[in-house]
Design a protein that fits this description.
Layout lengths: L11 E4 L4 H17 L3 E7 L6 H14 L4 E5 L9 H14 L7 E3 L4 H13 L4 H4 L5 E4 L2 E4 L7 H10 L16 H16 L3 H30 L6 E2 H5 L3 H13 L8 H12 L8 E4 L2 E6 L2 E6 L8 E4 L5 E2 L6 E6 L6 E3 L11 H4 L7 E2 L8 E4 L6 E2 L8 E2 H7 L12 E4 L2 E5 L3 E2 L4 E2 L2 E6 L3
Helix pairs in contact: 1-6, 4-7, 4-8, 8-10
Subcellular location: Cytoplasm
Enzyme class: ligase
Main location: cytoplasm
């Protein structure tokens, strides 16, 4: 058994669970490092799901000390909302490992041929197409580097034989025996029957997975031009371009779009919902389709892929001069300071999906209005609920509902309750990053909305 790493000088980061697969890979990696003098380290992700989790940390630490490899522990907590325990743990594990992968690094994981068979059968059970049936790739982009599975063509029996030959010890996760989990049921109940009947079944599945991956790559290559025509630099997707496609092409372009986010891939039913309920919605509708912890939204002729945000409409806080207010849900801080240039400043770093929403307003020039001292004549409050509020933005005549103003400023519905509203008594003073009410425009104060993310 040998490892195959194409770049001998790349730093190798081993995902070390402590099970037999990653334990064998640790032994192989240590030998590879000695032969090639390349940098390497091991990372153990502590889920806290087992009563033995702390013991596993110490066993992994001991093995890394014996192999003279640096060792790190990533402690994680995760939410299973919207997905099963296995899927949630897997997603949280890879998110934790991303923190250790710098540009050009290789993340090594211990999946093998039997794991590939389990993955294939699980995808078959879900009714997956070529993308799902292609299983796990031996090499693929990951964060700033690549994910490598050196043992993917080795069987579990070969790995066990190697471990016994080299007298390696490893930890046993008791949950691996629980056949309530689908993967364990396939491993303990289904695979033995299949392999007993057809000994070469795992190799046949590996070939089928590789063929499916090849077909998927061909589809992506043939549709790349159409996909790029629909895709905007900020990752919006043109509704017009999608509607010009046939059903099969449209579904594939949507899969290509989701693939770049490296999040949960939608099911066939969800793709149909996106096509029929979101793409074909009326222009004044506010359609939405939830995919895991994100949503597909339609706005201004484009599809947007946005997180499911917390509901903060009932949050409010008093704001005082030179006392920054910490905004909820990672929205940064809001500060009322002395005005010099007297501009209402938006210094918020947006996600790729959101960045376009204020593009026309922020790329031309800042909103050049400050606040008059009259705004402090009554206590000032920060709110995120625009319902029932009206305002008179500088340069506009008359008073208008915030809902109408948000529409005119082309702010999509999912951001309208995430923009801080400054209120004096019952009057809107300003909407941070958008406008100042003409009754409070002046040269005394400056409102700054900022975030470090």
């Amino acid at each position: 058994m040998t490892t195959h790493i194409q770049s001998p000088q790349a730093r190798c980061v081993l995902a070390l669970s402590g099970g037999i697969d990653s334990r064998v890979l640790l032994h192989l990696l240590a030998r590879y490092v000695r032969d090639n003098q390349c940098p390497a380290m091991a990372v153990h992700v502590h889920h806290g799901l087992s009563s033995s989790a702390d013991q596993w940390v110490e066993r992994c630490r001991q093995w890394c000390t014996e192999e003279a490899l640096p060792f790190q522990v990533a402690y994680i907590q995760f939410d299973t909302q919207g997905k099963g325990l296995e899927a949630a743990a897997r997603q949280a594990r890879y998110q934790a490992l991303e923190r250790y992968i710098d540009k050009g690094d290789l993340l090594l994981t211990g999946q093998h041929r039997d794991d590939q068979l389990e993955t294939f059968l699980l995808a078959l059970k879900r009714g997956s197409g070529p993308k799902g049936l292609s299983g796990m790739a031996a090499s693929m982009p990951f964060h700033q580097g690549r994910l490598i599975r050196p043992l993917l063509h080795c069987s579990r029996a070969e790995i066990e034989a190697y471990a016994n030959t080299h007298q390696l010890s490893w930890v046993e996760d008791e949950s691996n025996q629980d056949i309530r989990f689908d993967r364990n049921f396939i491993r303990h109940e289904v695979m033995p029957l299949l392999v007993a009947r057809w000994p070469h079944f795992p190799q046949a599945v590996q070939r089928s997975a590789e063929l499916c991956a090849s077909q998927e790559a061909l589809l992506d290559e043939l549709l790349q031009e159409r996909f790029q025509a629909a895709l905007q630099p900020d990752n919006r997707l043109s509704v017009r371009c999608l509607l010009d496609c046939g059903d099969a092409v449209r579904a594939q372009i949507l899969r290509m779009w989701f693939h770049q986010f490296e999040h949960q891939m939608p099911s066939r039913v969800q793709l149909e919902q996106i096509c029929h309920q979101v793409l074909l919605a009326k222009s004044d509708a506010n359609p939405c389709c939830r995919i895991g912890n994100h949503e597909v939204r339609r706005f201004d002729g484009y599809l947007h892929y946005v997180p499911v945000y917390a509901d903060i409409r009932d949050w409010q806080c008093q704001i005082k001069f030179n006392h920054p207010v910490e905004l909820p849900d990672g929205l940064g801080t809001l500060t009322l300071t002395d005005g010099t240039l007297l501009t209402l400043t938006l210094t918020l770093t947006l996600t790729l999906t959101e960045s376009t929403l204020l593009t026309e307003r922020t790329t031309e020039k800042p909103v050049e209005f400050g606040l008059d001292k009259r705004c402090l004549s009554t206590p000032l409050w920060v709110s995120f609920n625009p319902e029932g509020l009206v305002a008179s933005p500088v340069g506009r005549k008359g008073r208008h509902k915030l809902k109408k103003l948000f529409q005119e400023y082309r702010i999509p519905s999912w951001r309208r309750r995430r923009m801080p509203i400054l209120i004096s008594g019952q009057q809107v003073v300003a909407v941070a990053g958008l406008f100042v009410d003409e009754h409070f425009s002046g040269s005394d104060y400056e409102l700054i909305w900022s975030t470090d993310t």
